[in-house]
Structures are given as structure tokens and as C-alpha cells.
Amino acid sequence: MVQSQFGRRRFVTGAVGVGALVTRGITSAQEASPDASEWSFTDDKDVTITLPARPERLVMDVNAAAPLWDFGIKPTALFGWNVYADGTLGAAGGNIDPEGIPTVGNVNEPLNLEQVIAQDPDLIVTITWSDDPSDYWSIDTALLEQTKAVAPIAAISATGRADVNTGRFAELAAALGADLESEELVAARAEMETSIARLQGVASVKSDLTALFVSAGEDGAVIANPTDWADLNMYMELGVSILEPGVESGAYWLEISNEVAAEYATDIVFISARPGTLTPEELAGTPGWEQHPAVAAGQVFLWNQDFIQSYQGMTTAITGVAEAVERSAKVI
Fold first, then answer.
1. Residues 136/153, Cβ–Cβ less than 8 Å
2. Are residues 89 and 177 in the same domain?
3. pTM, whole model, 2 decimals?
4. Closest Cα to residue 328, out of 241, 228, 227, 232?
5. What gap in Å lies between CA 54 and CA 30, rounded to an integer?
6. Contact, 18 vs 168, CB < 8 A?
7. Is there a single domain that holds both residue 112 and residue 50?
8. How far apart are the C-alpha atoms of 218 and 231, rounded to whole Å?
9. At what angle do helices 311-327 and 230-237 cross, to 10 degrees?
10. Do residues 103 and 249 both lie within one domain?
11. Cα–Cα distance, 311 to 316 (Å, whole number)
């Protein structure tokens, strides 16, 4: 069955890099393909996927489905660790309405190959965190080749800069049939650009403020390394001063005990909004964090680690940071 599925699809490794794709802007699928009867797209792993026609049946990881949903591209089926066993989605689901959309993997079982085959996908879409050719989010490395035999996989980067990644999702959405010049998307893009300008402005006015991004629980905390996170990397480029915890690139976090939190003093703390983490109110009552200057000053705000890399999602994320900086004062 896998062989018959593969027999009507083909994909090859291309030589066009992400930077070249972003530089040349968004193109239609037919413009990207040497044969106008084919559909072609080069993803963020430098893999060019070529199909006889534009893919219609799309099995997606929820982290990729959420931004594409905002561009008007709907999944045939969903998978990923942000899909719960009952079919509901975590914060990474964004605006997706999961009603009637089957799941082929969830937080307990990232991808079920038999269920994927049953969906007869033309394309599988997910995200990637590295250049490692085996790194496809929510797809078990041991099943990668079997999964590719069912349908080609397109991966959009989750690292680098979030605004660049949003542009890549827009490009994929356009290739899949989205009209980026629709009234709704033009307005959404303008709102994102307005939020970027707002954050740049307030970051410039309050350039002396520093921020810390953390995920904290009762037993300890981890401090985000901003260069590893696409949203934080973008915020720094827009002028926000974010404490770097001194870990090597690709480590993502520095693990600390709550008792030493005050050693990482900043003017603002952004705490992860994921379930199971401390709320700002709980953080204020946690030994160690009580002595942190930002916490003592009540300058603690929520950080959605599962921000959506669409125009709408980025507007929400950027606006939240801008409002936090606007409301904060120097305390160290």
C-alpha cells in the first residue's frame, strides 16, 4: 500500500536555499516549477517537492496547521504533541476549529502511520528546528522514511526569526492556493506591520529596560536562550533587551532552581503560559522569585511559547510584548 501511494508522487532535493526564496519573494506554484503542469515548492530543509498538481489533501502538524489556517489553508487531518487525546488542541492550535478534522497522532502518539495512509495525503506539513535531515517535528525518526513513502513532507523553520518564518508560511500558503492579496490578509499583514512599528518605538524609548523569558514550576525554572527562539530573536532585533543566560546556541534553556532566580535580575519577566507552569501570581509567592526585582515590582507578563507564525498570530504576540514594555519601569 505504501508503495502504491509513493508511485504517484515524486520529490527531489533542490539547490535553492531559504534565503534565496525569501529574497525573491512569494511566487506561485507554477512560477516555481519548470513545468507549468506541475506543482513545486522548496521548503526550509532545501528540499524541493514536485507533484503532478497542487496538493489538496494536507496532513499537518498542528504547529504548521495553525498559521496556514490563518492564511485560509485547511488541514485534511492533524497530528502533533499539541493535539490532545480527546482531539482538542493546545495553544499551538491558534484559530483552528478542530470540529470534524480527524487526528492521526496526538501528545501520546505523535504520528500513526496507518492512520496517515488512510487519509491518502498529497502532502504532509510540519515544522523543523534544525538543518538535520531527520528533524521533522512530531515525526519519529524511525518512521521517517516510511512516512516519506506515503507522501512528501514540507517543513517550515521554527527557529531563526519569527517574522521571516511567517513570510515562509505565507509563501507556502500561496503555493497551496491562498490569495495573499485578499482584503482580509492585506489587512492582517498591515496590522502585523503596525505592531512591529509599535514595539520598535517603545523599545527605543525604553531601551534601558531588560527582560527575562522563563518557564517556571514549583520545583525549578528554565530560562530561555533568546537566540534559539524565533519570537525572542525577533524581539531582540526590534530593540528589546533580553537577558541571555550564557548557554551555547541550540541549548534553548538554562535550568535553575527557583532559589537563585534573583541572580538573573531584569526589569521585566515573561513567564510561559503553558499548562502546568506557575502563573504570575503564583510566581510572586514562590521563594527565590519573590526577591526578583521584576516580580517584586509586579512586572510579570505571560509569554505564549506556542505563538502562531501567521500575520494574525504575530500581531497578537508582538502586541503583548509591546504592551508589557509600555507598562514597565526601570527597577534594577
1. yes
2. yes
3. 0.87
4. 241
5. 9
6. yes
7. yes
8. 26
9. 60
10. no
11. 9
